[in-house]
Amino acid sequence: MSQILTLTDISYCYPGAPEPLFEHLSATFAAGWAAVLGDNGIGKTTLAKLACGMLSPDSGTVSPNPCKMAVAYCPQRTDETPTNLDDFAADWTGETIAIRDALNIGDDWAYRYETLSGGEAKRLQIACALAGDPDVLVLDEPTNHVDGRTRQAITQAMRRFDGIGIVISHDVELIDATCSRCVMLERRHARGRNITAANTYQGGYTQAAQQMRDNQRADTAAIQSTRKELQRMQRIKRERAQRARELDMRKNQGMRIDIKDIDARKALKNLKPAIGTTVAQTSAQFDGRIAAATDRLAHLSEAAKRYDGTIWMNVMPSSRRELTRIPNDHAIADQPDMLSIGPRDRISISGPNGSGKTALIRRLIEALERDEAQRHSERMPYLYIPQNSSDMDTANAMNRLHALTDEQRAIVLSAYAQLNADPDRLLAGGNPSPGELRKLLLCLGMIEQPQLIIMDEPTNHLDLHSKQALANTLSSYAGALVAVSHDEWFLNAVTSIRWRCAS
User: Which part of the chain is the ABC transporter domain (predicted)?
Assistant: First the structure.
Protein backbone atom coordinates (compact mmCIF):
# COMPACT_ATOMS: atom_id res chain seq x y z
CA MET A 1 0.00 0.00 0.00
CA SER A 2 1.15 3.54 -0.79
CA GLN A 3 3.09 5.29 1.97
CA ILE A 4 2.04 8.74 0.75
CA LEU A 5 -1.45 10.26 0.84
CA THR A 6 -1.86 13.37 -1.31
CA LEU A 7 -4.65 15.95 -1.37
CA THR A 8 -4.44 18.08 -4.50
CA ASP A 9 -6.31 21.31 -5.26
CA ILE A 10 -9.08 20.51 -2.76
CA SER A 11 -12.15 22.74 -2.48
CA TYR A 12 -14.93 22.05 0.01
CA CYS A 13 -17.99 23.95 1.21
CA TYR A 14 -20.40 22.74 3.87
CA PRO A 15 -24.03 22.69 2.69
CA GLY A 16 -25.65 26.04 3.45
CA ALA A 17 -22.36 27.74 4.35
CA PRO A 18 -21.92 31.25 2.88
CA GLU A 19 -18.44 30.54 1.53
CA PRO A 20 -16.12 27.57 0.98
CA LEU A 21 -14.06 26.30 3.89
CA PHE A 22 -11.22 25.33 1.52
CA GLU A 23 -10.36 26.62 -1.94
CA HIS A 24 -7.63 24.93 -4.01
CA LEU A 25 -5.87 23.58 -0.93
CA SER A 26 -3.16 20.92 -1.19
CA ALA A 27 -1.36 18.80 1.42
CA THR A 28 0.71 15.63 1.54
CA PHE A 29 0.91 13.04 4.33
CA ALA A 30 3.73 10.49 4.32
CA ALA A 31 4.46 7.53 6.60
CA GLY A 32 5.00 8.62 10.18
CA TRP A 33 3.08 11.18 12.18
CA ALA A 34 2.06 14.61 10.94
CA ALA A 35 0.22 17.10 13.13
CA VAL A 36 -2.59 19.20 11.68
CA LEU A 37 -2.65 22.52 13.52
CA GLY A 38 -4.69 25.70 13.39
CA ASP A 39 -7.25 27.84 15.15
CA ASN A 40 -10.62 26.50 16.28
CA GLY A 41 -13.05 26.24 13.38
CA ILE A 42 -10.41 26.59 10.66
CA GLY A 43 -11.15 23.10 9.31
CA LYS A 44 -8.65 20.67 10.88
CA THR A 45 -11.19 17.89 11.42
CA THR A 46 -12.73 18.50 8.01
CA LEU A 47 -9.32 18.19 6.34
CA ALA A 48 -8.69 14.90 8.16
CA LYS A 49 -12.10 13.54 7.15
CA LEU A 50 -11.42 14.49 3.53
CA ALA A 51 -8.07 12.70 3.75
CA CYS A 52 -9.58 9.47 5.05
CA GLY A 53 -12.66 9.47 2.79
CA MET A 54 -15.31 10.34 5.37
CA LEU A 55 -16.10 13.48 3.33
CA SER A 56 -15.83 14.01 -0.43
CA PRO A 57 -14.33 17.23 -1.81
CA ASP A 58 -16.36 19.47 -4.12
CA SER A 59 -13.34 19.49 -6.42
CA GLY A 60 -9.78 18.23 -6.36
CA THR A 61 -8.42 14.75 -5.70
CA VAL A 62 -7.30 12.50 -2.85
CA SER A 63 -4.73 9.93 -3.97
CA PRO A 64 -4.73 7.03 -3.49
CA ASN A 65 -8.48 6.70 -3.07
CA PRO A 66 -9.15 6.26 0.69
CA CYS A 67 -11.84 3.69 -0.16
CA LYS A 68 -9.04 1.37 -1.30
CA MET A 69 -7.12 1.75 1.97
CA ALA A 70 -7.66 0.57 5.54
CA VAL A 71 -8.52 3.80 7.36
CA ALA A 72 -9.29 4.40 11.05
CA TYR A 73 -10.61 7.66 12.48
CA CYS A 74 -10.65 8.30 16.23
CA PRO A 75 -13.07 11.21 16.95
CA GLN A 76 -12.43 13.98 19.43
CA ARG A 77 -15.75 13.47 21.25
CA THR A 78 -15.71 10.59 23.71
CA ASP A 79 -19.47 10.04 23.52
CA GLU A 80 -19.03 8.53 20.03
CA THR A 81 -18.84 4.76 20.45
CA PRO A 82 -16.17 3.08 18.25
CA THR A 83 -17.77 1.32 15.30
CA ASN A 84 -15.65 -1.80 15.87
CA LEU A 85 -16.18 -1.96 19.65
CA ASP A 86 -17.89 -5.37 19.55
CA ASP A 87 -15.11 -6.80 17.38
CA PHE A 88 -12.51 -5.41 19.76
CA ALA A 89 -14.30 -6.92 22.76
CA ALA A 90 -14.13 -10.38 21.16
CA ASP A 91 -10.55 -10.05 19.87
CA TRP A 92 -7.95 -11.63 22.16
CA THR A 93 -5.18 -12.15 19.63
CA GLY A 94 -1.62 -11.38 20.66
CA GLU A 95 -1.55 -8.04 18.84
CA THR A 96 -4.78 -6.82 20.43
CA ILE A 97 -3.67 -7.97 23.88
CA ALA A 98 -0.49 -5.92 23.39
CA ILE A 99 -2.62 -2.86 22.56
CA ARG A 100 -4.80 -3.46 25.65
CA ASP A 101 -1.70 -3.70 27.84
CA ALA A 102 -0.03 -0.63 26.30
CA LEU A 103 -3.10 1.55 26.94
CA ASN A 104 -4.12 -0.12 30.22
CA ILE A 105 -7.54 -1.13 28.89
CA GLY A 106 -9.73 -2.90 31.45
CA ASP A 107 -11.09 -6.28 30.39
CA ASP A 108 -14.69 -5.15 30.92
CA TRP A 109 -14.43 -1.65 29.42
CA ALA A 110 -15.80 -2.65 26.03
CA TYR A 111 -18.98 -3.90 27.74
CA ARG A 112 -19.63 -0.71 29.76
CA TYR A 113 -18.48 2.07 27.46
CA GLU A 114 -21.18 4.49 28.63
CA THR A 115 -19.91 4.33 32.24
CA LEU A 116 -16.26 5.11 31.46
CA SER A 117 -14.66 8.41 32.37
CA GLY A 118 -13.62 10.72 29.55
CA GLY A 119 -9.99 9.60 29.75
CA GLU A 120 -10.90 5.91 29.86
CA ALA A 121 -13.23 6.28 26.87
CA LYS A 122 -10.51 8.07 24.91
CA ARG A 123 -8.02 5.26 25.56
CA LEU A 124 -10.56 2.67 24.42
CA GLN A 125 -11.31 4.68 21.26
CA ILE A 126 -7.61 4.74 20.39
CA ALA A 127 -7.22 1.03 21.17
CA CYS A 128 -10.11 0.18 18.83
CA ALA A 129 -8.57 2.33 16.08
CA LEU A 130 -5.16 0.66 16.44
CA ALA A 131 -6.66 -2.83 16.54
CA GLY A 132 -7.80 -2.52 12.92
CA ASP A 133 -4.15 -2.29 11.76
CA PRO A 134 -4.98 0.66 9.48
CA ASP A 135 -2.91 2.07 6.62
CA VAL A 136 -4.05 5.55 7.65
CA LEU A 137 -4.83 6.45 11.27
CA VAL A 138 -6.39 9.78 12.27
CA LEU A 139 -6.39 10.75 15.96
CA ASP A 140 -8.54 13.82 16.65
CA GLU A 141 -7.50 15.47 19.95
CA PRO A 142 -6.27 12.18 21.49
CA THR A 143 -5.06 13.72 24.76
CA ASN A 144 -8.27 15.54 25.64
CA HIS A 145 -9.66 14.23 28.94
CA VAL A 146 -6.52 12.23 29.81
CA ASP A 147 -4.09 12.40 32.73
CA GLY A 148 -0.30 12.46 32.47
CA ARG A 149 0.11 8.68 32.72
CA THR A 150 -2.41 8.10 29.95
CA ARG A 151 -0.78 10.76 27.77
CA GLN A 152 2.50 8.86 28.05
CA ALA A 153 0.79 5.59 27.10
CA ILE A 154 -0.81 7.24 24.05
CA THR A 155 2.56 8.69 23.05
CA GLN A 156 4.17 5.25 23.16
CA ALA A 157 1.31 3.68 21.18
CA MET A 158 1.65 6.36 18.49
CA ARG A 159 5.39 5.74 18.21
CA ARG A 160 4.77 2.06 17.50
CA PHE A 161 2.39 2.80 14.61
CA ASP A 162 4.22 2.55 11.25
CA GLY A 163 1.53 3.69 8.80
CA ILE A 164 0.41 7.17 7.75
CA GLY A 165 -0.56 8.95 10.96
CA ILE A 166 -2.48 12.23 11.18
CA VAL A 167 -2.98 13.77 14.61
CA ILE A 168 -5.12 16.84 15.28
CA SER A 169 -3.99 18.30 18.56
CA HIS A 170 -3.02 21.41 20.50
CA ASP A 171 -0.87 19.34 22.85
CA VAL A 172 2.64 20.73 22.28
CA GLU A 173 4.32 18.01 24.34
CA LEU A 174 2.61 15.21 22.38
CA ILE A 175 3.38 16.75 18.98
CA ASP A 176 7.04 17.36 19.80
CA ALA A 177 7.37 13.76 21.02
CA THR A 178 5.72 12.02 18.05
CA CYS A 179 5.55 14.17 14.90
CA SER A 180 8.16 14.79 12.22
CA ARG A 181 5.99 17.22 10.23
CA CYS A 182 3.31 19.81 10.95
CA VAL A 183 0.62 20.90 8.49
CA MET A 184 -0.35 24.39 9.59
CA LEU A 185 -3.77 25.63 8.49
CA GLU A 186 -3.47 29.40 8.40
CA ARG A 187 -5.85 32.19 7.54
CA ARG A 188 -4.05 34.33 4.97
CA HIS A 189 -5.04 37.73 3.59
CA ALA A 190 -4.60 37.97 -0.17
CA ARG A 191 -6.36 39.85 -2.98
CA GLY A 192 -8.50 41.71 -0.45
CA ARG A 193 -9.97 38.61 1.25
CA ASN A 194 -9.08 35.91 3.76
CA ILE A 195 -8.39 32.37 2.57
CA THR A 196 -7.23 29.18 4.31
CA ALA A 197 -3.80 27.90 3.30
CA ALA A 198 -2.04 24.65 4.27
CA ASN A 199 1.71 24.93 4.78
CA THR A 200 3.90 22.01 5.81
CA TYR A 201 6.87 22.50 8.13
CA GLN A 202 9.44 19.97 9.28
CA GLY A 203 9.74 18.89 12.91
CA GLY A 204 7.41 18.96 15.89
CA TYR A 205 5.38 21.93 17.03
CA THR A 206 8.23 23.91 18.57
CA GLN A 207 10.38 23.75 15.44
CA ALA A 208 7.47 24.19 13.02
CA ALA A 209 6.03 27.17 14.89
CA GLN A 210 9.40 28.95 14.70
CA GLN A 211 9.60 28.27 10.95
CA MET A 212 6.07 29.63 10.52
CA ARG A 213 6.90 32.82 12.44
CA ASP A 214 10.04 33.31 10.34
CA ASN A 215 8.02 32.85 7.14
CA GLN A 216 5.34 35.26 8.33
CA ARG A 217 7.96 37.93 9.05
CA ALA A 218 9.49 37.36 5.60
CA ASP A 219 6.05 37.58 3.95
CA THR A 220 5.25 40.82 5.76
CA ALA A 221 8.63 42.30 4.80
CA ALA A 222 8.13 41.31 1.13
CA ILE A 223 4.67 42.91 1.06
CA GLN A 224 5.92 46.12 2.67
CA SER A 225 8.88 46.30 0.27
CA THR A 226 6.68 45.72 -2.78
CA ARG A 227 4.14 48.31 -1.61
CA LYS A 228 6.89 50.90 -1.12
CA GLU A 229 8.32 50.17 -4.57
CA LEU A 230 4.86 50.44 -6.14
CA GLN A 231 4.19 53.75 -4.36
CA ARG A 232 7.61 55.08 -5.44
CA MET A 233 7.00 54.26 -9.12
CA GLN A 234 3.50 55.74 -9.00
CA ARG A 235 4.91 58.95 -7.48
CA ILE A 236 7.67 59.21 -10.11
CA LYS A 237 5.12 58.58 -12.87
CA ARG A 238 2.94 61.42 -11.57
CA GLU A 239 5.91 63.80 -11.25
CA ARG A 240 7.26 63.08 -14.74
CA ALA A 241 3.81 63.29 -16.26
CA GLN A 242 3.41 66.71 -14.65
CA ARG A 243 6.77 67.82 -16.06
CA ALA A 244 5.79 66.54 -19.50
CA ARG A 245 2.51 68.48 -19.35
CA GLU A 246 4.37 71.64 -18.41
CA LEU A 247 6.75 71.11 -21.32
CA ASP A 248 3.87 70.57 -23.73
CA MET A 249 2.30 73.77 -22.52
CA ARG A 250 5.57 75.64 -23.06
CA LYS A 251 5.96 74.21 -26.53
CA ASN A 252 2.41 75.17 -27.40
CA GLN A 253 3.21 78.70 -26.32
CA GLY A 254 6.24 78.68 -28.58
CA MET A 255 8.46 78.89 -25.52
CA ARG A 256 8.11 82.67 -25.65
CA ILE A 257 9.46 83.82 -22.34
CA ASP A 258 10.16 87.35 -21.25
CA ILE A 259 13.91 87.72 -21.07
CA LYS A 260 13.48 89.39 -17.71
CA ASP A 261 11.42 86.45 -16.29
CA ILE A 262 14.28 84.66 -14.51
CA ASP A 263 12.01 82.08 -12.77
CA ALA A 264 10.42 81.03 -16.06
CA ARG A 265 13.82 80.67 -17.73
CA LYS A 266 14.99 78.40 -14.87
CA ALA A 267 11.85 76.28 -15.19
CA LEU A 268 12.43 75.90 -18.93
CA LYS A 269 16.02 74.85 -18.29
CA ASN A 270 14.81 72.11 -15.93
CA LEU A 271 12.37 70.87 -18.55
CA LYS A 272 14.96 70.48 -21.32
CA PRO A 273 15.85 66.85 -20.46
CA ALA A 274 12.22 65.94 -21.14
CA ILE A 275 12.08 67.62 -24.56
CA GLY A 276 10.49 65.26 -27.05
CA THR A 277 8.68 63.31 -24.34
CA THR A 278 4.89 63.51 -24.35
CA VAL A 279 2.54 62.82 -21.43
CA ALA A 280 1.46 59.54 -23.03
CA GLN A 281 5.06 58.43 -23.54
CA THR A 282 5.95 59.22 -19.93
CA SER A 283 2.95 57.26 -18.68
CA ALA A 284 3.72 54.27 -20.91
CA GLN A 285 7.29 54.07 -19.59
CA PHE A 286 6.01 53.27 -16.09
CA ASP A 287 2.80 51.38 -16.81
CA GLY A 288 4.59 48.08 -17.40
CA ARG A 289 6.73 48.35 -14.26
CA ILE A 290 3.74 49.37 -12.15
CA ALA A 291 1.65 46.51 -13.54
CA ALA A 292 4.43 44.03 -12.71
CA ALA A 293 4.71 45.32 -9.13
CA THR A 294 0.92 45.24 -8.73
CA ASP A 295 0.86 41.62 -9.92
CA ARG A 296 3.63 40.66 -7.48
CA LEU A 297 1.69 42.28 -4.63
CA ALA A 298 -1.51 40.46 -5.61
CA HIS A 299 0.25 37.10 -5.36
CA LEU A 300 1.71 37.83 -1.94
CA SER A 301 -0.25 36.97 1.20
CA GLU A 302 0.16 37.71 4.88
CA ALA A 303 -1.31 36.29 8.07
CA ALA A 304 -4.90 37.42 8.56
CA LYS A 305 -5.55 39.76 11.47
CA ARG A 306 -6.20 38.06 14.80
CA TYR A 307 -8.78 39.22 17.33
CA ASP A 308 -7.98 37.10 20.38
CA GLY A 309 -7.80 39.13 23.58
CA THR A 310 -9.43 39.24 26.99
CA ILE A 311 -13.12 39.33 27.90
CA TRP A 312 -14.06 41.74 30.65
CA MET A 313 -16.60 39.96 32.89
CA ASN A 314 -18.45 42.61 34.89
CA VAL A 315 -19.41 40.39 37.84
CA MET A 316 -19.61 41.14 41.55
CA PRO A 317 -18.85 38.24 43.92
CA SER A 318 -21.74 36.80 45.88
CA SER A 319 -22.41 38.38 49.27
CA ARG A 320 -22.90 34.92 50.79
CA ARG A 321 -20.14 33.65 53.05
CA GLU A 322 -20.47 30.17 51.53
CA LEU A 323 -21.91 29.19 48.15
CA THR A 324 -22.34 25.48 48.90
CA ARG A 325 -20.74 22.53 50.69
CA ILE A 326 -20.66 18.75 50.32
CA PRO A 327 -19.22 15.88 52.41
CA ASN A 328 -15.65 14.99 51.49
CA ASP A 329 -16.20 11.22 51.81
CA HIS A 330 -12.39 10.81 51.67
CA ALA A 331 -12.45 11.69 47.96
CA ILE A 332 -10.13 14.68 48.36
CA ALA A 333 -6.86 14.24 50.21
CA ASP A 334 -5.66 16.85 52.73
CA GLN A 335 -9.08 18.52 52.95
CA PRO A 336 -11.59 18.69 55.84
CA ASP A 337 -14.65 16.46 56.15
CA MET A 338 -16.80 19.10 54.42
CA LEU A 339 -15.77 20.63 51.09
CA SER A 340 -16.85 24.26 50.92
CA ILE A 341 -16.85 26.89 48.14
CA GLY A 342 -16.50 30.53 49.15
CA PRO A 343 -17.61 33.53 47.06
CA ARG A 344 -14.08 34.26 45.80
CA ASP A 345 -12.53 30.78 45.91
CA ARG A 346 -10.63 29.62 42.83
CA ILE A 347 -10.55 25.84 43.05
CA SER A 348 -8.94 23.31 40.73
CA ILE A 349 -9.89 19.63 40.78
CA SER A 350 -7.23 17.24 39.49
CA GLY A 351 -6.46 13.55 39.64
CA PRO A 352 -6.05 10.43 37.50
CA ASN A 353 -8.65 9.29 34.99
CA GLY A 354 -11.48 7.46 36.72
CA SER A 355 -10.81 9.04 40.12
CA GLY A 356 -14.23 10.72 40.25
CA LYS A 357 -13.54 14.33 39.24
CA THR A 358 -16.65 14.69 37.07
CA ALA A 359 -18.71 12.83 39.69
CA LEU A 360 -17.54 15.38 42.26
CA ILE A 361 -18.70 18.18 39.96
CA ARG A 362 -22.13 16.54 39.69
CA ARG A 363 -22.36 16.38 43.49
CA LEU A 364 -21.48 20.08 43.74
CA ILE A 365 -24.18 21.02 41.23
CA GLU A 366 -26.77 18.84 42.99
CA ALA A 367 -25.89 20.57 46.28
CA LEU A 368 -26.19 24.00 44.64
CA GLU A 369 -29.62 23.19 43.24
CA ARG A 370 -30.77 21.75 46.56
CA ASP A 371 -29.53 24.81 48.46
CA GLU A 372 -31.19 27.21 46.03
CA ALA A 373 -34.50 25.34 46.31
CA GLN A 374 -34.42 25.77 50.09
CA ARG A 375 -33.59 29.47 50.02
CA HIS A 376 -36.23 32.17 49.88
CA SER A 377 -33.78 34.82 48.67
CA GLU A 378 -32.89 35.63 45.07
CA ARG A 379 -31.30 32.76 43.17
CA MET A 380 -27.51 32.90 42.77
CA PRO A 381 -26.59 32.71 39.07
CA TYR A 382 -23.94 30.15 38.16
CA LEU A 383 -22.56 28.76 34.91
CA TYR A 384 -21.65 25.12 34.27
CA ILE A 385 -19.85 24.02 31.09
CA PRO A 386 -19.45 20.20 30.88
CA GLN A 387 -16.54 18.43 29.21
CA ASN A 388 -18.72 16.82 26.51
CA SER A 389 -21.32 18.54 24.36
CA SER A 390 -23.86 16.91 22.06
CA ASP A 391 -25.45 18.06 18.82
CA MET A 392 -28.47 19.04 20.90
CA ASP A 393 -26.25 21.28 23.05
CA THR A 394 -25.02 22.96 19.88
CA ALA A 395 -28.57 23.53 18.62
CA ASN A 396 -29.68 24.90 22.01
CA ALA A 397 -26.73 27.29 22.16
CA MET A 398 -27.49 28.64 18.68
CA ASN A 399 -31.17 29.05 19.59
CA ARG A 400 -30.19 30.98 22.72
CA LEU A 401 -27.94 33.24 20.66
CA HIS A 402 -30.67 34.09 18.16
CA ALA A 403 -33.22 34.66 20.96
CA LEU A 404 -31.12 37.44 22.53
CA THR A 405 -31.88 41.11 22.06
CA ASP A 406 -29.70 42.96 19.56
CA GLU A 407 -27.76 44.57 22.40
CA GLN A 408 -27.18 41.27 24.20
CA ARG A 409 -26.18 39.51 20.98
CA ALA A 410 -23.65 42.25 20.23
CA ILE A 411 -22.08 41.76 23.68
CA VAL A 412 -21.89 37.99 23.24
CA LEU A 413 -20.41 38.16 19.74
CA SER A 414 -17.87 40.80 20.75
CA ALA A 415 -16.67 38.53 23.56
CA TYR A 416 -16.73 35.54 21.20
CA ALA A 417 -14.41 37.36 18.80
CA GLN A 418 -11.99 38.11 21.64
CA LEU A 419 -11.61 34.35 22.14
CA ASN A 420 -10.21 34.02 18.59
CA ALA A 421 -13.48 32.99 16.92
CA ASP A 422 -15.36 34.29 13.87
CA PRO A 423 -18.79 35.81 14.71
CA ASP A 424 -19.67 36.29 11.02
CA ARG A 425 -19.22 32.60 10.30
CA LEU A 426 -21.32 31.72 13.35
CA LEU A 427 -24.18 34.02 12.33
CA ALA A 428 -24.05 32.79 8.73
CA GLY A 429 -25.09 29.34 9.90
CA GLY A 430 -21.73 27.64 10.26
CA ASN A 431 -21.78 24.65 12.60
CA PRO A 432 -19.43 25.55 15.49
CA SER A 433 -16.58 23.16 16.22
CA PRO A 434 -16.33 21.72 19.77
CA GLY A 435 -13.79 24.42 20.64
CA GLU A 436 -15.98 27.18 19.21
CA LEU A 437 -18.99 25.80 21.09
CA ARG A 438 -17.15 26.01 24.43
CA LYS A 439 -16.32 29.65 23.70
CA LEU A 440 -19.93 30.38 22.77
CA LEU A 441 -21.27 28.74 25.94
CA LEU A 442 -18.95 30.87 28.07
CA CYS A 443 -19.96 34.07 26.27
CA LEU A 444 -23.67 33.23 26.49
CA GLY A 445 -23.23 32.56 30.20
CA MET A 446 -21.82 36.06 30.69
CA ILE A 447 -25.28 37.53 30.05
CA GLU A 448 -26.48 36.09 33.38
CA GLN A 449 -23.45 37.56 35.23
CA PRO A 450 -22.69 34.28 37.04
CA GLN A 451 -21.16 34.49 40.50
CA LEU A 452 -19.81 30.94 40.19
CA ILE A 453 -18.32 29.29 37.09
CA ILE A 454 -17.83 25.51 36.97
CA MET A 455 -15.89 24.15 33.98
CA ASP A 456 -15.05 20.50 33.32
CA GLU A 457 -11.90 20.23 31.16
CA PRO A 458 -12.18 23.83 29.89
CA THR A 459 -9.10 23.67 27.65
CA ASN A 460 -10.24 20.59 25.72
CA HIS A 461 -10.61 21.42 22.01
CA LEU A 462 -9.12 24.92 22.42
CA ASP A 463 -6.25 26.10 20.24
CA LEU A 464 -3.21 27.60 21.97
CA HIS A 465 -4.20 31.23 21.37
CA SER A 466 -7.71 30.58 22.69
CA LYS A 467 -6.38 28.80 25.79
CA GLN A 468 -4.26 31.83 26.64
CA ALA A 469 -7.22 34.17 26.06
CA LEU A 470 -9.44 32.00 28.30
CA ALA A 471 -6.81 31.99 31.06
CA ASN A 472 -6.57 35.79 30.87
CA THR A 473 -10.35 36.10 31.06
CA LEU A 474 -10.78 33.79 34.05
CA SER A 475 -7.83 35.39 35.86
CA SER A 476 -9.70 38.70 35.87
CA TYR A 477 -13.05 37.13 36.83
CA ALA A 478 -14.10 38.32 40.32
CA GLY A 479 -16.47 35.47 41.24
CA ALA A 480 -15.83 31.89 42.38
CA LEU A 481 -14.32 29.38 39.96
CA VAL A 482 -14.15 25.57 39.97
CA ALA A 483 -12.15 23.98 37.15
CA VAL A 484 -11.47 20.31 36.42
CA SER A 485 -8.41 19.83 34.22
CA HIS A 486 -5.26 17.85 33.52
CA ASP A 487 -3.63 21.00 32.13
CA GLU A 488 -1.24 22.05 34.89
CA TRP A 489 -0.27 25.30 33.18
CA PHE A 490 -3.90 26.37 32.97
CA LEU A 491 -4.72 25.40 36.56
CA ASN A 492 -1.71 27.28 37.89
CA ALA A 493 -2.75 30.35 35.88
CA VAL A 494 -6.37 30.58 37.06
CA THR A 495 -6.71 28.80 40.44
CA SER A 496 -5.16 29.00 43.90
CA ILE A 497 -6.81 26.08 45.78
CA ARG A 498 -6.13 22.48 44.72
CA TRP A 499 -8.47 19.56 45.37
CA ARG A 500 -6.72 16.32 44.38
CA CYS A 501 -8.92 13.30 43.86
CA ALA A 502 -7.48 10.06 45.18
CA SER A 503 -6.63 7.38 42.64
Answer: 5-212
How far apart are the C-alpha atoms of 455 and 442, rounded to whole Å? 9
Mean pLDDT over 34-47 rounds to 92
Contact assessment for residue 463 and residue 437, using Cβ atoms and an 8 Å cutoff = no
Read off the amino acid at residue 313. M
* Contact criterion met (CB below 8 Å) for 249 and 225: no
In the chain, CATH 3.40.50.300 sits at 4-203, 324-501
Q: CA–CA separation, 130 vs 99, rounded Å?
A: 8
- 96 or 235, which is more confident: 96
The per-residue DSSP string of 50-84 comes to: HHTTSS--SEEEEES-GGGS-EEEE-S-TTS--TT
| pLDDT of 2 | 66
| Helix residue spans in 406-433 (DSSP H) | 406-418, 423-427
Q: Name the helix (H) or strand (E) containing 121.
A: helix 118-131
In DSSP terms, 8 is beta-bridged to 61
**Residue 270's Cα: distance from chain center in Å?**
60
Distance CA(384)–CA(369), nearest Å, equals 12
At 106 the three-state DSSP class reads: coil
User: What residues does 315 pair with on adjacent strands?
Assistant: none
Max Cα distance, the chain (Å): 111
Say which CATH superfamily domain 324-501 falls into. Answer: P-loop containing nucleotide triphosphate hydrolases (3.40.50.300)
Q: Which residues of 69-88 are buried (b: 16+ CB within 10 A; e: fewer)?
A: bebbbbbbbbeebbeebeeb
Q: What is the DSSP letter of 474?
A: H
- Quickly count: other Cβ atoms within 10 Å of residue 272's Cβ: 8
- With residue 152 as reference, give the H or E element that holds it: helix 148-160
State how far the Cα of 440 lies from the Cα of 33, in Å rounded to an integer.
32
Whether 202 and 211 have beta carbons less than 8 Å apart is answered as yes
- What SS3 class is residue 169? coil
Q: Which CATH architecture has domain 4-203?
A: 3-Layer(aba) Sandwich (3.40)
